[in-house]
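Task: encode each sequence below as structure tokens.

Item 1
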Amino acid sequence: MSSAILINCFEVAPEQDERFLQLWRQADDLLRSRGGYRTTRLHRALGPQTRFRYVNVAELDSVEAWQSAVGSPDFTAIAARMADFSPSPGLYTVEVAYNTAEQEQDR
């Protein structure tokens, strides 16, 4: 088993914020109840020119736990309702990481 980072971008029109957030919370509640989520953070773009108004970043215990959760009928039903927001999920691993505080200590 290997940990992974989920990054999922959504195209949400401003007038659809409430509907999107309701569905996102349902999906998040379901996924967290299945285990395998370490952290999750939903980000909203600051400017109107951004294609993806919402970006979810979650740290997962394993790729296998994620695959099991999203393969469930419950999640599939929520995902079908979220299709209007053109989700673009992908699993990633950290390639390079910097911590400003650590860099300044090394000087």
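Item 2
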Amino acid sequence: MGLLQEQVALITGAGGGIGRGVAHSFAKAGAAVVVAELDVDSGKAVAEELQALGARALFIKTDVSSKSDIEAAIQLAVEQFDGLDILVNNAFAPTPNVLLEEKTDAMLAQTLDSTVWAAWWSMKAALPHMQARGGGKIINFYSIDTEIGAWLHGDYNTAKAAIVGLTRSAASEWGRFNIRVNAIAPTAMGATFHKLAEENPGFAEKSASMRPLGRCGEPEEDIGPVVVFLASEMSRFVTGETIHVDGGLHLPGYNSRPAGVPIREY
């Protein structure tokens, strides 16, 4: 019996990167997995991968910046698998990497829609179904970028700070429903990492050297098991926590200042 046997999980943004790694970890732990993904090709591919592992899996095209899409995905998951036990809010829609003064209202709105509002809508939609099951587990995604004030990510940093507030509020209030709510701050070799490594020789080696563990994370082998832990009865007395899953990168942090930006401009 796996740690998540007979559990039903919905993972947003599971069509690639960390989301795909978590989906694979969940499937191997025995869960039925709903791949809530905007990209049809990648979403279908991951669902087929999970089915090949022997898992029950379903792809649902989902734009997490749409409340109706999220609500429909959760309802369909419940109809297909007779309930919902686990919600993983991983997806977000990135905006251009530009300085804070160049970030637009539209960029901030897009980021808030795909992170804070997406988590808010999905958590509220999942609540009655988790109550019907006698409890549930929610795992939200935070980021080290917020802690260091990463350059060029002003809107993202703002949104992820709000995710921590939402996570703690839900953990505080929904514990009475036996719903545990936690967050993780992961870094791993997803699609963005591989793109940067291809475009910037030495990027992968430098990234690994910044971490006390001396290597970069694998989505399935390094991130997935921590999410499985938070979704399983192994963490039955853990709620309101934020766990860094980054090889220790949060200890030294990192300098994100772009090359060429003057120290003083006045």
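Check on item 2: The chain has one domain: 8-245. Residues 105-132 form the longest helix (28 residues).
End of task.
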